[in-house]
Amino acid sequence: MKTSLSFGSNLEKISSVEKFIDSVCTEYNISEEVYGNILIATIEAVKNAVVYGNKNDTAKPVTVTAYIADDELVVVVKDSGEGFDYENLPDPTLPENIEKDSGRGVFLIKNLADKVEFLDNGSRIKMGFKLL
Questions:
Q1: I need a labelling partner for 40 at 20 to 30 A (CA). Which of 24, 73, 80, 112 fits?
Q2: Which residues form the domain of 45?
Q3: Model pTM greater than 0.85?
Q4: Strands, DSSP E only, in the chain?
Q5: Could you tell me the CATH number of the domain that includes residue 82?
Q6: Overall domain count for the chain
C-alpha cells in the first residue's frame, strides 16, 4: 500500500516530512539502522525538490510517497521542476568543493540509499532501502 504526503514548497515543512517518515518506519517496523538512512536521504531529496526543483515556490507541490516492494522500502520524492543534469554533478569530496555550502545532497542520497533512480529528467527521485 502506498502512503503519500504532499505540500507546497517550503523548507518549514521538513518537520512534516520527518513525521511522515517516522510513521512509515513505525508502520513497516523498520530497524533503527535503516531508519536513519531513510530519514536523511529523504530530507535531502525534499530539500533539493523545494530549493532547486520548485525554487521555493509555495504554489508548486512536493510529493513524498513510500511503499514496500521486493523486500525494500521505496521512497519517491517528486517536484514540479524541469529536472537537472544528475549525470554531471561536481564531486563534493574533491578539495575544491569541500568548502562549498551546497552540492552534498545527491552525494548523501547515493551513499545512504541502496538503490537510486532519477526519473522525469531528475524531477522525481526513487530511493530503495533494503529491509534488514
A1: 80
A2: 3-130
A3: yes
A4: 3-8, 61-69, 72-78, 115-119, 124-130
A5: 3.30.565.10
A6: 1
